[in-house]
Specification:
By secondary structure, the chain is α+β, with helices and mostly antiparallel strands. It has four domains: about 180 residues, no CATH class; about 60 residues; about 170 residues, no CATH class; about 90 residues, no CATH class. Helices cover about 30% and strands about 20% of the residues. The protein is built from 13 helices and 14 strands. The longest helix is centred in the C-terminal third of the chain and has 29 residues. The chain is elongated. It starts with 13 loop residues before the first strand and ends with a strand. The N terminus is likely disordered.
Length: about 550
């Protein structure tokens, strides 16, 4: 079944296809050689949707030769950064018997002399044509076969000398009038050792391999040496097969990229204020069902004729792409809601990791931890550490919500994104409430006294106003805090934590003002950061808190 031609957005895509050089057609005087620049052979390529077969139509109606016949450049391996990459020019171009042929003229610049020599001698046999597609004919994938895309209108842009073509027919061919195995008397001369060594080291990257090859062919003439080198390279390639090849250098996994693009499109649909990346534009108007179908077909299964219910069922049970896509979309919706709902209370705590669910104790330095003078040749005295008696352990908290098959088929995006948003807010609320409960419960320490206790020097009278005097007293109390060994630990107040009822009062005391006289200077302006916790039960609650670091 043929699909409509692809949109004009494909016009700018530059691609490459294999060709071959007829080395024996080299003309020394004109510096020209004949090439076959395309046979229309099938080549497997890959894009967002997965692997497909590319085919070039080789008819005069399909191929626009205007650029080639106007003198298109011959490049070195498709490089076109500057004029130095141009190694020749196309003299003539034609189509015959389903093949594209051309005569190219190579430059006589000294820097390309080695390249020209390899073309003449048959070491470089491969040419690749760079082209752009003007119109595609697409045959969708069927069971057991991947999609076929035939370029029914296309334009060659340049020819390039390349080391490896995509088509094995892209090789230098000998003149039909010259038998392949014919011995040529003019090539019986011995080739000098320096030239042999240079060529062996150029094409055989392993030094030991090159040395052994030189030893075996030390008396070969130029023609015999080059043929032996090509045979050796072919044998090496067969022992380590590399074909068929799809070049994916610099690419990420295609299906992962596709999931990333679809997730971005879903998030944009749910919230148009979120920027839509260029890679996601092709999915901007895709429904959840469309995306489920895409995920199934990316795995090589055709969904033609399937009901919506079957598509959704197979998307969940035969591939991980669709569940992963929904998970990633939910995460992107959940995280902004989670971040915006947090009160800032989490900034007063230090996050840590735990490897299991057993109680965790922190290590304390013992009383003998003071540094002592060490005399010459004397030994350092050992200090000791011990586990603190206070401990904590982690727990698991969560909830599962389902997305029904009907919601996906109906493209009910709100049922999906609204739940994700609510889950994000719920997670933030749980964290804040958990920390609030921990503060308000004022649990007992290992010494049997509450965390906030007069004996710990961290408890003020209840209901005290937030003013310069009370903040000064709180700051002083923190500075005088000591460790279990009785040493000052120099804790500095960094945050002012208040209940909502005291927020305005706190803002006033922390506000920057321009004082008319010294006595009116606000000592605490810019010194403390205000955090309001809406979960405090006591409206008069306020605390000065040090940085967790």
């Amino acid at each position: 079944m043929e699909a409509p031609a692809m949109p004009d957005s494909q016009l700018a895509n530059r691609q490459w296809a294999p060709a071959e050089i007829r080395a024996a057609s080299w003309d020394e005087q004109s510096r020209t050689v004949d090439v076959v620049w395309s046979t229309g052979a099938d080549v497997t390529r890959r894009d967002w949707s997965g692997a497909y077969v590319e085919r070039l139509a080789m008819t005069s109606e399909a191929v626009d030769l205007s650029r080639l016949t106007a003198g298109a450049p011959v490049l070195n391996a498709h490089k076109s950064r500057d004029t130095g990459d141009v190694v020749g020019v196309v003299e003539t171009a034609a189509l015959k018997d389903g093949r594209g042929t051309a005569t190219i003229r190579l430059s006589d610049r000294p820097e390309v002399a080695g390249l020209v020599s390899d073309v003449k001698s048959g070491v470089i046999r491969n040419v690749s044509v760079g082209y752009r597609v003007l119109e595609w004919k697409k045959t969708p994938a069927v069971e057991g076969r991947i999609e076929v895309r035939e370029a029914v209108k296309w334009q060659p842009m340049e020819l390039s000398l390349v080391p490896v073509p995509a088509d094995q027919g892209a090789q230098i061919r000998k003149d039909p009038d010259m038998p392949e195995n014919e011995a040529i008397e003019t090539e019986t001369r011995q080739w000098n050792a320096a030239a042999r060594r240079d060529m062996a080291e150029r094409y055989l990257t392993d030094d030991g391999e090159a040395a052994e090859f030189l030893r075996q062919h030390s008396r070969a003439n130029e023609r015999a040496f080059r043929d032996a080198l090509l045979d050796h390279m072919a044998d090496t390639s067969e022992r380590s097969p590399t074909f068929p090849v799809v070049d994916t250098r610099g690419m990420q996994d295609t299906r992962a990229m596709q999931r990333e693009a679809m997730a971005a499109a879903l998030v944009h649909r749910a919230n148009p204020s979120v920027e839509l990346p260029d890679a996601a534009r092709e999915f901007a108007h895709s429904s959840l069902l469309d995306m489920a179908r895409t995920c199934v077909e990316a795995g090589g299964t055709s969904t033609r004729g399937w009901s919506p219910s079957e598509v959704v069922q197979r998307a969940f049970h035969t591939t991980s792409d669709f569940p992963t896509l929904l998970t990633e979309s939910a995460r992107r919706t959940l995280m902004p809601a989670y971040g915006s709902a947090r009160s800032g209370l989490h900034r007063l705590a230090r996050q840590a990791s735990a490897k299991d669910f057993r109680p965790i104790s922190r290590v304390n330095v013992t009383e003998d931890a003071d540094l002592e003078q060490v005399n010459e040749h004397a030994e350092y005295k050992r200090g000791t550490f011990k586990e603190g008696k206070e401990s904590y352990k982690i727990g698991t908290h969560g909830k599962i919500f389902g997305l029904s098959r009907q919601a996906i088929i109906n493209d009910d995006l709100s049922a999906f994104t609204d739940v994700s948003t609510q889950l994000g807010r719920s997670a933030a609320r749980f964290e804040d409430q958990f920390l609030t409960d921990l503060i308000e419960s004022n649990p007992a320490m290992a010494d049997g006294k509450a965390v906030f206790h007069a004996d710990h020097g961290n408890l003020a009278a209840a209901g005290a106003a937030i003013d310069t005097d009370t903040l000064s007293a709180a700051r002083l109390a923190m500075r005088k805090q000591v460790d279990p060994a009785g040493h000052r630990i120099n804790v500095a107040a960094a945050f002012l934590l208040v209940a909502p009822d005291r927020e305005t009062e706190a803002e006033k005391i922390l506000a920057q003002i321009v004082a008319a006289k010294t006595d009116d200077v606000n000592t605490f302006a810019g010194k403390l950061e205000l955090i309001t916790n809406p979960y405090f039960e006591d409206p008069d609650s306020w605390f000065t808190v040090a940085s967790p670091a």
